[in-house]
Amino acid sequence: MKKMTLKVALLAAMMATSGFAVAMDEDSYRAEHKAATEALNKAKKVGGEWRDSRWKKSTAVKVDGKKMSYLHAAEAYAAKGDYKNAMKYAGIAKFEGEMGYQQAMDQKNAGPRH
Amino acid sequence: MELQVKPLAMAVVVMAAISSVALPQAVAADSAMIEKGKKVAFDRKKGNCLTCHQIAGGSLAGNIGPPLIAVNARFPDRDKLRAFIWDKTESNPYTMMPPFGKHHILSESEIDAITDFVHSL
Amino acid sequence: MTMKKIVLMALAACLALGTTGVYASQADDINALRHYFKKKFPTVPFKEFANGSYALSADKRINWESMRDFPPFEDHVAKGEALWNKKFKNGNSFATCLGNDVTKVRNRFPHWNAKDKKVETLEGNIVACQKANGEKPFGLKKGNIAYLSAYIASQANGQKVNVVVPDDKDAQAAYEAGKQFFYAKRGQLNLSCADCHVYSAGMYARGNLLSPVMGHTTHFPVWRGKWAKKKGDGFGTLHRRYGGCNKQVRAKPFKAQGKEYSNMEFFHASMSNGLTIDAPDYRE
To answer: C202 to chain B: which residues are within 8 Å by CB?
Structure first.
């Protein structure tokens, strides 16, 4: 009897912590997704978005047989509860937004040099 | 323009033949990395180096960049070569060469492999 | 001739130049580019630049000429002619918007619309005409818009491109924006239009011979071998080509007939000034 309660208690504790971990993962994914969207919006304002960050015709990542952009892949994984992959692709989208913005700024005064 | 292509292609083949004879040890040292690097270099979705560079063993190469021959002699310093591949815009902002590392076109380990491969040429 | 007369005539000449609205920066850009390509390709005569990379390679030229012997786009031009002649439901037609003389349409575009402060393009005006007459507008990149544009362009064959940037601050700003777009590196691959079509023109990217920018717009819409391998019938507009270029350098393409591409067309077409229209045409 004692053994049983201990087992139940352990199981409950495990479930609670794993649930807690998922919630943590979900929170950090949401933060990363928000940061990615903000970075991409900033890049868009200066015409600096890259092809595979969030363009709806991008074929960069395959999720369940469907090809899509990095940000869409992040959303698809998040919808399945796979926050590890969701984080990864949101991170790529964020990086591309930041680089695209930086690139557009560097090229602001581009012109002929011949 | 076209006239230059054929002699260059021949030079690539000749130089490759010479280097493979002259440097068997260097080649043997990281042959797995070099093989991986060659695959990444020739993959159209990865390095796609043949778009611009002639490389021994590759066909239908472009000529926008210099042919990759005697790289070992031109870049004795492997780190310098790696830095070029990682971000050539650092030394020349007008370069045609994409910044493979800076823009995450390739992963760090892929760049290591390509560096070994190109350095072996 | 008296001194007074000479001075008056010189003054008149200056005024005449002023009113034709030649924008100094545009003239400088055109001259600099002509000079640059003359140095780069000393044996290629200026008028040959209308033929793109086929002016630069004898091998490629043979293929191109044999394609032109039996052009794959004759049916497309015929479809375009039918569209030109067709009446809208309200009795109007494209001629109502673009003018009755079809030979005088292509070469008016692109041009600056001072009232709406924007660059007008042929394809943009085709669609605007449909909307104004309650017709369903064409898609912007291929199909009917390319057929009609090809027919209209073919009727201007032999005329010389002459894009005018008027003496208007906003027009000049649009031209400069288009120029910046052309020269700015973009996308994950960090390449500009100019990287391939100015600085590396005449070089090979794999088996593709990169064409010089000067002469690009003389032959659009084009039938492309590359497009024929995909969905559709190989035919497309200039803005379809812009989108393809942006995608290749891994940049997100902009909307066809949007501000970015229309401004770019203003600059891009200017760089073909003085070259002869010969449209449509085949390109690899």
So the answer is: 1
Main-chain dihedrals φ then ψ at residue C240, nearest 5 degrees: -65, -40
Q: Where does a domain end: C114, C135, C154?
A: C154
**CA-only gyration radius of chain B, Å:** 14
Residue keyed to tokens 């823009």: B103
Say whether C196 is catalytic.
no
Indicate whether this complex's ipTM tops 0.95.
Answer: no
Chain A contact present for B108, CB below 8 A? no
Verify whether the Cβ–Cβ distance B96 to C199 is below 8 Å: yes
Burial B79-102 (b: 16+ CB within 10 A, else e): eebbbbbbbbbeeeeebbbbbbbb
Please list the pLDDT of chain A residue by residue as tens digits (114 residues). Answer: 455 566 666 656 555 556 666 777 899 999 999 999 999 999 999 999 999 999 999 999 999 999 999 999 999 999 999 999 999 999 999 999 999 999 999 999 999 987
Residue C142 sits in the same domain as residue C176: no
- What is the topology classification, in CATH, of domain B2-119? Cytochrome Bc1 Complex; Chain D, domain 2 (1.10.760)
B58 close to C (CB below 8 A)? no
pTM attached to this predicted model: 0.85
Contact C190 B60 (CB under 8 A): no
**Can you give the residue ranges of every domain in chain B?**
2-119
